[in-house]
Amino acid sequence: MPKAQIVGTGGYQPGEPIDNAMIESIVGPLPEDVLAGVSIQQRYWMIDPATGEHLDSNSGMAVKAARSALESAGLEAAQVELIIVATGTPDYPLPPVANLVQEALGLEECATMELRSAGSGPVQALDIARTWIEQGRITTALVIGSEAISPALAPVFLKTEPAKIRMRDRVPLYMFGDGAGAIVVRAGEGEGLRQGTTRAIGGSRKAGIHAIGGGTHAPILTQQRSKRMVDLRVDVVGAGDFTPVMVTKALADSLAAADLAAEDADWCLIPEGNVGWMLDSLNEAGLLTPEWLALQGRIFDDLAQTGACGCAAVPLFLDHAWRTGMVKPGQKVLLIGVEATKWIYAGIACDWTAEAPA
User: Fold this and answer.
1) What's the count of helices (H) and strands (E) in the chain, helices before strands?
2) How far, in Å, CA of 82 to CA of 110, rounded?
3) What residues are paired with 111 via a beta bridge?
4) Sequence ranges of the domains in the chain
5) Mind listing the pLDDT tens digit of every residue in the chain (358 residues)?
6) Distance between CA 50 and CA 344 in Å, rounded?
7) Which residues form the Beta-ketoacyl-[acyl-carrier-protein] synthase III N-terminal domain (predicted)?
8) Between the N and C ends of the chain, which has fewer C-beta atoms within 10 Å?
9) Which residues are CB-neighbours of 296 under 8 A, at least 6 positions away?
10) Domain 3-351, CATH homologous superfamily name and number
């Protein structure tokens, strides 16, 4: 049976980094303790902060990340047989971003899928790609996570004095960024991706993040009369309370699915896994499990430099770790994606085989 191996990654974030000083100038300050808890120093937006003009697009960022990943793998776009895109902020309701990427890459025919599971989506996609490759259905898959969140943030501050922006509306602007990450998965021999897992544990729980507008939840004329056509609502308190519970479950479930002991994992990618508020919450809730304790010093992300970028987070962070030499052949790497909309997690482990690109 062929083994699904990660053979290349790529990442892209638009424009110049936007630091906290710039965010403060357009939306006002956050209390020092809240800013420290956010733990983000900069982020990237596909809009011009001064005008709201779009300088890129979700699919445009996805294509750039895809091309970077294919180049790192030494492959041509024509070799891709399956494209899976995870995004919560598509260019259009239809056609899917996956097909816009397909068109831009010049592929007349290939299998495509799009997942709307936000931060957990790229990890779910890796498990789908693994399954198809092990079944012998395909040889090469392209997994992409792409997010364009800044257009939903712009109505909060454009033509509004910072002093008039409510504190709860400021927090998402300090948190979120745009970008795309891509992973090439290819059939090989030896080691590679292990069995993954995914679960939604917020069946009756209030959504931690709610993106409202542009859908069919209400008549279009009613939406047009709303204060904001698109509104991104973040339950900061709810997310802070339940995210540690979800991450703890994700960690234990992912290790079990991969038949991997925490002590044997060289690295574990968990978005926000090293953030102060997360560790404090885990400790206060009694959730510092043996798995967490065993992985201390080996949990990584790149949140401080990218911002919280939803579907792009896991592939972007992985790309950074691989290209900087952190992740090396022979290591066991656990990837965990989590999503606070309806509390979804996904995890997958990889016995890493790819040499870092020159």
Assistant:
1) 13, 14
2) 6
3) 82
4) 3-351
5) 899 999 999 999 999 999 999 999 999 999 888 888 788 999 999 999 999 999 999 999 999 999 999 999 999 999 999 999 999 999 988 999 999 999 999 999 999 999 998 899 999 999 999 999 999 999 999 999 999 999 999 988 998 999 999 888 898 899 999 999 999 999 999 999 999 999 998 887 677 666 767 777 778 777 777 777 677 777 666 666 778 888 889 999 999 999 999 999 999 999 876 666 777 777 777 877 888 888 888 999 888 999 999 999 999 999 999 999 999 999 999 999 998 787 899 999 999 999 988 7
6) 35
7) 114-192
8) C
9) none
10) Thiolase/Chalcone synthase (3.40.47.10)
Q: How far apart are the first and last CA of the chain?
A: 31
Per-residue H/E/C for 154-199: HHHHCCCCHHHCCHHHHHHHHHECCEEEEEEEEEECCCCECCCEEE
β-partners of residue 268 are 299, 334
Query: Residue 5: what are its φ and ψ, rounded to 5°?
Result: -120, 140
Residue 49 in 3-state DSSP? coil
- Residue 187's nearest CA partner among 95, 328, 82 is 82
